[in-house]
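Researcher: Following up on the earlier apo prediction. This time include the ligand. It's pyridoxal-5'-phosphate, with the SMILES given after the sequence.
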Amino acid sequence: MNENTHLVCAGRHPERFGGVVNTPIFRASTILAGSMAEWEEMKRARAAEEPGATTYGRYGTPTTQALEEAVAGLEGGYRSLVFPSGLAAVSTALTALLSAGDHVLVTDSAYSPTRAFLERVLARFGVEVETYDPVGGTPIEALLRANTRVVYVESPGSETFDIQDIPAIAAAAHRHGAYVVMDNTWGTPLYFKPFAHGVDVSVQAATKYIVGHSDAMLGVVTCNRETWPLIKQTTHDMGQTAGPDDIYLALRGLRTLAVRLQRHWQSGLRVAQWLELQPQVEAVLHPALPSHPGHALWKRDFTGACGLFSVVLRTSSRASLAAFIDTLEHFGLGVSWGGYESLVIPFTPGMGHTVHRWPYQGQAVRLHVGLEDPEDLIDDLRRGLLALSACDSEAENEKAGSGEICHS
Ligand SMILES: *Cc1c(COP(=O)(O)O)cnc(C)c1O
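Model: Understood. Below is the ligand-bound prediction.
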């Protein structure tokens, strides 16, 4: 089945719900059995993991199962589990796989709360956490130890957009008996197929493109056959579950994922190409640009790009950065991404990185290019860059003893 068709059909069973197109929002804690025999049968079906089987709202309802079934199919994994946030999905998957005495390798460019979870929480339980350079430095093979249980990858990396060689990392990890856990939020289940590239567990912050409208928090973990029992057990042991309204929003977002992403990709690349030509820009970190160091790997392994990338500005001034951001009208200043709207957020390059050197000089922002007309976004950025230049030259004049320093 073509993927666009799959997106429309995935996880939908109208015949079970009186013909209603969308799986209804099931609000449930207690699920009644009609008799003792039926209760025994419900418990048996849940233990046997039969489709639709549940005994309690925490273990999922038809609403939960619709999203799990859809995402597992799209990612190309065995089964999925839904979580109340992307970070809950990450932390539960890692908790399921790691025990005291184990060693975990985490990419330096991982989403920083993921690293914080490993370093602040799992380290307290005796897990040894080591960061590695996502793109170069010591080959992963040389870092793998007898007790390395997980290699955590995120490609492209948060903020830096480094592309990792996932098949090579997975081959090395598997030679040493380690699992590969991937944050696949940027690639989405459409543009990167984790299991076809050797990944054992894939995490989606569904909050981003799957929900797609900045109105719900949700995460999904997708497992292969081997990791499924471990992750499912820990998820249930930890009481992880998500609310039906948020799951419904994710299912609704999923139906338009392909068309939205197509536009995010086109507009994002158009904006990135324009930015690359501007004198105020030091670098644009977008894997689909031929200038990106990871471009060849991106072309080999990905089938598209989303609307998220970073821009390094040719200024070291915080005031000029503020002049740029405060001039923007279509880019909201805030975290997260994947909604229909454009966003900008400043970040401190390489902050928290321990092994990967950041090669750029200037102030940096991450942009999310939304579904607005890209020409309007470019006009907005043009005004922002002019404000940045004006602020930079005012500061120059001030240094030379004339004019006022800009306050922005
Ligand atoms: C946002 C994000 C997460 C966490 O998702 P939440 O739903 O906000 O908890 C994880 N990984 C990446 C790459 C993200 O951007």
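Model: The chain has two domains: 66-239, 258-399.
Researcher: Noted. I'll compare it with the apo version next.
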